[in-house]
């Protein structure tokens, strides 16, 4: 979910407080990869990684372990289905997984000896899983987070971008950003993920990558209200642009080490575009503006079990703004919060938008 | 159309070569406004300005002259229709114009004594009109260009942004950017245009505003190809993001005085979003990708007399890249050119997108 929420809910250190870790001096002879998570996005990245380890066999163990939360689908275990039919019929139906992607229901077994951990699962499951992973992983393991804000005690890079899972799985061209602390480790992760249709750029700013990845879901709620009210692209583009400036200001205010130019990477402007035109926060907010105004009900009826991240994020973000007494400098975030939480009318986002010109 | 084309076709100085003009020392007692042009956008801004001069009567003559190229609509002169029914039935039907907007068919009469000239018409008409305007205008007139790249011998500001005319006319919230050389004059123009639903920000970078306004139509062709090929928002957001970087690089290469941060204004990222999702360049390029591959025919059948700006712009821009021998540093612009002009397959924009990672 977010840097902020994982930290506060789970008691972990925020990523920004993890001490910088240098690239490992002694690299493993062969890297062993474990993908922790097997939903839509986890299965998609396991597919990419499996294709790459097959191709790069001298550097990587070709088999990729994918930890799967076991469930029964049509009377059969999901791990068995994946390992025999090479398809995650529940979360990524219709897409063939490479046969070297091995579904493993036992977490300790999946993570055993892993030198590269790829986290792709809802953040709320982490606290329960991390101790097991810590024990099983290789002592010099590195990690890449496709969620946000976690600490495992090993060097973490953060991979984010304009990545709708189904489109990535289909092999459509797209980009992503890796925010890193250790460049050497990030380059290893880039090797593991990169394909001609999946281009990665390395940026030494994991915090910026996380901030934009977190707040874009909030801005997408604003974009959804605009859609639900029937406004056109002028208005939506204006809200998105103001949102970009408040994301930058949020970074300056709370994480001054953030790099401003990260906004021009895939994890910034491109992910914002994708999320504000196609994402589930936008979709639910569009319906919210039309009514009924009940997030729980909309989440249950529209998302088929997926979570609406923007709403819990804006609650947490607004508390940070209040605690630091800077609400007035974030008029758009404040408006979105009040529409989501305080029965403020969605129309206010348009009526009050002219107040969003805070002084620079 | 563009800074570049007006200059080369009409022999005018580019805006960037117009000497900076200081704010006028002696302001006119009362400013007299002439809107040159009465199409969709010209009529929309005449409506805004008319509402404002009515409200700001001590500073502005309340009547706003709008030069209208005379034509007969349903047996009646268009100027007569506008002046009696207060509606431009041909170019902005269904929207009431304030009664103080006066349609004038004679250009010299419309511009007579004008202290503020607002240019909102296709650039190709300018060369014929400018001498008449030069003679009729007040000697200390200032101008604001809603087109691009013109020189009238007076101080010019440039107004651009995510402004689909019909949405602005409807009073939907939107933003725009004024790029200026003289801040005092730009503030006067801001006063003339601004409304609660039409927010303007002043930026001392008229060149940047023009570059983004010009090149966004080219990037929108790329976005249209992606749409026509059936790709989703990942791919489209990636092309738009690469496009932003090549727009910035174009500025650095040809107009080093450009300010990079202008990309974060309405004339930059927001206008790019609007144009790549809603604009006519995108629309025609989508159809082009599906076939037939004939721009003239698409323009004639899809735009109802409006012009397709992106195609002529990329021809001109590509010539600039060739002349300076920097084509290799602009792989996306080069791809779009070759798809438009050299029978390169639209699919190449996706196949070759990974080559668009030029070194920084």
From TrEMBL, chains A, B:
Substrate binds at residues 148, 280-281. Its EC number is 1.1.1.8. The active site is at residue 216. Keywords: NAD, Oxidoreductase. One of its GO terms (biological process) is glycerol-3-phosphate catabolic process. SUPFAM superfamilies: 6-phosphogluconate dehydrogenase C-terminal domain-like (SSF48179), NAD(P)-binding Rossmann-fold domains (SSF51735). InterPro entries: 6-PGluconate_DH-like_C_sf (IPR008927), 6PGD_dom2 (IPR013328), G3P_DH_NAD-dep (IPR006168), G3P_DH_NAD-dep_C (IPR006109), G3P_DH_NAD-dep_euk (IPR017751), G3P_DH_NAD-dep_N (IPR011128), NAD(P)-bd_dom_sf (IPR036291). Residues 205-350 form the Glycerol-3-phosphate dehydrogenase NAD-dependent C-terminal domain. NAD(+) binds at residues 37-42, 125, 165, 280, 307, 309. It catalyses: sn-glycerol 3-phosphate + NAD(+) = dihydroxyacetone phosphate + NADH + H(+). One of its GO terms (cellular component) is cytosol. GO terms for molecular function: glycerol-3-phosphate dehydrogenase (NAD+) activity; NAD binding; protein homodimerization activity. Residues 33-183 form the Glycerol-3-phosphate dehydrogenase NAD-dependent N-terminal domain. It comes from the Eukaryota. It holds the Pfam family NAD_Gly3P_dh_C. PANTHER family: GLYCEROL-3-PHOSPHATE DEHYDROGENASE, GLYCEROL-3-PHOSPHATE DEHYDROGENASE [NAD(+)]-RELATED. Belongs to the NAD-dependent glycerol-3-phosphate dehydrogenase family. This is Glycerol-3-phosphate dehydrogenase [NAD(+)].
């Amino acid at each position: 979910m977010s840097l902020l929420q994982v930290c506060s809910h789970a008691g972990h250190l925020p990523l920004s407080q993890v001490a910088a870790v240098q690239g490992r001096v002694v690299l493993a002879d062969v890297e062993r990869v474990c993908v922790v998570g097997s939903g839509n996005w986890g299965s998609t990245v396991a597919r990419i990684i499996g294709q790459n380890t097959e191709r790069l066999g001298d550097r990587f163990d070709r088999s990729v372990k994918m930890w799967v939360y076991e469930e029964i689908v049509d009377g059969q275990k999901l791990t068995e289905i994946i390992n025999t039919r090479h398809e995650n019929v529940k979360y990524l139906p219709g897409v063939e997984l490479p046969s070297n992607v091995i579904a493993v229901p036992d977490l300790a077994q999946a993570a055993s000896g892993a030198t590269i951990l790829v986290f792709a699962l809802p953040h709320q499951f982490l606290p329960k899983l991390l101790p097991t992973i810590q024990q099983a992983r290789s002592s010099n393991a590195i990690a890449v987070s496709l969620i946000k804000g976690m600490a495992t005690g090993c060097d973490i890079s953060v991979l984010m971008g304009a990545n709708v899972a189904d489109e990535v799985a289909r092999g459509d061209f797209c980009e992503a950003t890796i925010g890193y602390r250790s460049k050497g480790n990030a380059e290893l992760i880039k090797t593991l993920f990169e394909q001609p249709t999946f281009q990665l750029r390395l940026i030494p700013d994991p915090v910026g990558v996380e901030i934009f990845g977190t707040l874009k879901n909030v801005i997408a709620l604003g974009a959804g209200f605009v859609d639900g009210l029937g406004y056109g692209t002028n208005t939506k583009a204006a809200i998105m642009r103001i949102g970009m400036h408040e994301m930058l200001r949020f970074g300056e205010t709370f994480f001054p080490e953030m790099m401003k130019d990260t906004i021009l990477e895939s994890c910034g402007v491109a992910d914002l575009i994708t999320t504000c035109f196609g994402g589930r926060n936008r979709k639910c907010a569009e319906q919210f503006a039309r009514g009924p105004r009940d997030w729980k009900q909309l989440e249950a009826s529209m998302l088929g079990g997926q979570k609406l991240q923007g709403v819990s994020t804006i609650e947490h973000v607004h508390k940070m703004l209040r605690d630091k007494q800077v609400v007035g400098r974030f008029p758009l975030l404040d408006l979105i919060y009040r529409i989501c939480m305080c029965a403020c009318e969605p129309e206010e986002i348009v009526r009050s938008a002219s107040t969003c010109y805070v002084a620079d």
